[in-house]
């Protein structure tokens, strides 16, 4: 009991709980990426073909002494001559062939050796898989604002536990779903649980870390959990599906989710209602703030690139690289590792070099990396672009998440549930628009052109991050600032925020002149 009492007062244990919740959510997010395309192909395309072939009558075996419909081989000129209207091509001595009159030569286009058959089915599957992946983000998009309002009323602890419960149910449903419809429902249910976990978790972190620099580091570590989940998910799913079975990765995740629930019961006390001490700024007011909109747009566009890759890259690899199943998940490994490095590295560095600069460079690198993806001819050619993509998204996420809390502290009231609902909405818009439109755009334009469009959008948006260089404080905050000039408390205030963000030589010189 003494350990629990001290643990509940420790921000670090709260960070551990949020880290584990984001980790499991994002393992489940990406574990389905390599599983769903091949599972649907196996159950629907191959299943339909096998049922059709079993319904056809078996051909009657031809007796070896009666070959009236077979070809007769001449031993003098080695020419195959069709007999009694047999329609196969005539093979001439020089190796060329021709068809009988009225039968044009047929050259069926067979897929390269090792590739999956059914090109038209794979093309349609792009759209269906994209919609299935997008369903999670679409549901999360709708639920997020309500979760933000709920956290302002009852606190962060109960919504976090609700998120765990729904996540566990979704994981079990994934394990035992055998049709597209059930997989779609399980994915949408995951969106509800993810909304509770992410909004409440990030808001809880912002409230227990009031100092801006500590908050940035804590956000970087929490996003490292997100990155680790993405890192583990796709390779773990592809290997377990290939060698153990479809249900195995989801059953392992369900067990880990139970461990997370026990941790939340011990640390967070989810039965306790603890509303925000200050009245939160309405969502409509925050949505009219141009600086919050710029930060949200950066989150949306940078994550849209990897969201479009999730449903389209595995199918493109099946069609062009003839990749085995285990490679479909391993292709995302460089992006996940570099994202993990990027979020932890720039959680600390971004506050020193300027978060606006980190996000601007990150968005430019995201665009360039996406432009390089279609140039790959095998899985090794994807290592560089995917690694650059993951590292750059890590730069953007670890810069923008603390900026959201900083903007609320600077320009509004310090209640974080609503602003992180907006941040999660922006994140989910990328993961909703990306897969749902990506599959359709691949069918219409092709995979390379899709990458070009999204890459150019990211490069074009990058300069807007300059607007976050020194956002002005609201008039009410300026009045408070003028009354509290002599004090420089350790905790985050608007006065300290103005001096610490962004940290440049000019701002230091101006501060010294004023003093």
Automatic annotation (TrEMBL):
Residues 14-473 form the Major facilitator superfamily (MFS) profile domain. It catalyses: serotonin(in) + 2 H(+)(out) = serotonin(out) + 2 H(+)(in); dopamine(in) + 2 H(+)(out) = dopamine(out) + 2 H(+)(in). It holds the Pfam family MFS_1. The chain crosses the membrane at residues 12-36, 129-149, 161-186, 192-209, 221-241, 247-268, 289-309, 329-349, 361-383, 389-408, 415-434, 446-468. The keyword Transcription does not apply. It is found in: Cytoplasmic vesicle, Secretory vesicle, Synaptic vesicle membrane. CDD domains: MFS_SLC18A1_2_VAT1_2. Residues 92-114, 487-515 are annotated as: Disordered. Keywords: Cytoplasmic vesicle, Glycoprotein, Membrane, Neurotransmitter transport, Synapse, Transmembrane, Transmembrane helix, Transport. One of its GO terms (cellular component) is terminal bouton. It is a multi-pass membrane protein. InterPro entries: MFS, MFS_dom, MFS_trans_sf, MFS_Vesicular_Transporter, Tet-R_TetA/multi-R_MdtG-like. Residues 503-515 have a biased composition (Acidic residues). Residues 101-111 have a biased composition (Pro residues). One of its GO terms (biological process) is aminergic neurotransmitter loading into synaptic vesicle. One of its GO terms (molecular function) is serotonin:sodium:chloride symporter activity. Belongs to the major facilitator superfamily. Vesicular transporter family. NCBIfam families: 2_A_01_02. This is VMAT1 protein. The lineage of its organism: Eukaryota, Metazoa, Chordata, Craniata, Vertebrata.
